[in-house]
Give the backbone structure.
Amino acid sequence: MTPAASPAAAPTAAVAGRGEFEAIIKAAILPGLRWPNFSDVREDVRKFYEAGGYMLVWTAANRPIPQARAVIEQFKQAQLKGLNPEDYDASRWDARLARLAPATPNPAQSDLLHFDLAMTIQTMRYLSALHIGRINPQHFKFGLGQGPGRLDLADFVRARLLPARDVPGVVASVERPYKGYQRAEAALAVYLKLAAEGDTGPVPTPPKSIRPGDSFAGMPQLVRRLHQLGDLAALADPAAPGMVYQGTVVDGVKHFQVRHGLEPDGVLGKATIAELNTPLSARIVQLQLALERYRWLPRDFPQPPILVNIPEFKLRTLRRAEGGFLTMNVVVGRAYRHKTPVFADEMRYVIFHPYWNVPPSIADAELFPKQARDPSYFAKHGFEVVDGQVRQRPGPENALGPVKFVFPNSYNVYLHGTPATGLFSRARRDFSHGCIRVQDPAALAAWVLRDKPGWTLDKIRAVIDGNQTIQVNLDKPIPVLILYSTAVVEPDGEVRFFDDIYGYDAELEKALAAGYPYPD
C-alpha cells in the first residue's frame, strides 16, 4: 500500500556542506548509483536545488518523508511499467534507508546528502522515462519527435510530487493516455506473472510437419503450452486428446498462429513450433519495447490518426470513442534494402486514378533493363517518359492502384492501392519498395473524406470505377503514424506478437541495455 503522505511533508533540512552538493552536481557523478553518471538530468537537478536554496527535500528530522518511501516503491515495481527496476536502484534503497533508520539517531551529513541526490536523480529519470521514453527515437534515424516534449522535471517534482498524497496517481499522470498503452501495460503484468510460474516444457520439433489427424508424440506438451498461453481451454487430463493431433487442439493452434502472425493453417511446422517454444521472457521484452515506443508518440492529436504498424502488416485508425474505427491489411517495404521508414506526418490530399512517378532508383534498376530486353515493355504497361521522368499512366496496371493518399514527406512514402491484391492474403507481407499498399483503398478513402460533404462510399466507388484523375484536398490534415511494434494488444485484450522483420527490436534492446545516460 502507498504510505500516507502529509501535505506538511516539506523540505526542512539545510545542507551544511553546500559546496560538496554543488561539486557533485557540477561533476554529474554520484557514486553508489547503478548508473552514476547523471549528465542526462544534471541541469534539471541543478535547477531543482538552486530554486530551493539547496535544502534537503526527501527527509524531515533526518528521516525519509512518506513521499520518498512511496517513490521508492514505484522504483521497485518499475518492471510493471516496462522499465528495469535496477536502472532506478531498486535493490539499493533498503541499505540507504537503513542508514537513516531510528537506530541511527544522527545520520552522517553525507548520507543525507547522497540519499537526497539519489532520490532526485532517480525520480527525474523515472518520470522522464514514463513520459517520453528513455531513448530519443531520432537516435535510430526515425522521423519521430520525442513525444510531447520534456517535462519541467524540477518544477514537477517540487510542485506536484513532493506534496502529493497520492504519489502513484501523480506518477501515472505523466504516462501515455492511450488505451493501447494501458492494454499493453496490463498484458505485461499477465506475462510477468506467467513467467514467474515458469515456462511449460518445450514442444518437441517433429522430423516433418504435423497435420490435423496425424499422430504426434508431443501432444501433452503442446496442450500444456497452449493452455498456459490462453489459446486452449484447460483440459482435466492433458493427455485426454491422446496422441492424435485433432479437434480443439487444432483450433487452439490456429488461434495461436493468428496471434503470432503465422498462416492459420493448423499445421505444426518449424515456424509454429519455434513460436510455441519462444520463452515468456522474450514476450515480456516485446511488450516492454512496445511500451517504450508508445512513449515516443504525441500526447494528443487534433483528430484521430491513421496508424500503420510495420511488423504487423496492419493499418488501423485510432479513435476517441466508439465508432468510426477502421482496420485493414497492408503491404510494407521489403526487409532487405527497401524498408518502410518509421515516421510521423500529416495527410493533406487524396488522388483518385493517380500517375505513378517512378523513383529513378526503381527505373534504373528494374524498368530500363526490362525495356532493353523488350522494347515494347513501356507501351504494354502504360509507362511513358516526360521531361526525363518515367511515369505510369492511370489504369488497371498502375502500381498505385485506384487511390493515392498523400502526406508529403522527405522519404517520398505514401499509402496507395495496388493491382497485386493477392499479396494481402499472405501472413508475411513485406514486398514493396517502401511505400504502403492498402487492402481496401475505397474504405480508407471514405474514412479520410468522411467530413467532406458528398464523398460517400458509393460516390468513391463510382469515381474509382471511372477513369478521371481527381485530387481532393482535406480541410484538416490527418496525422499519419508509421510505427514499429512487435507486440500489440487488441481491444478485447488479446495479445499478438510479430517477427522483428527489420531488426529494430534487437537494436532498441541493445541500446537500452547500455543504461543511463541514454542517447539523446
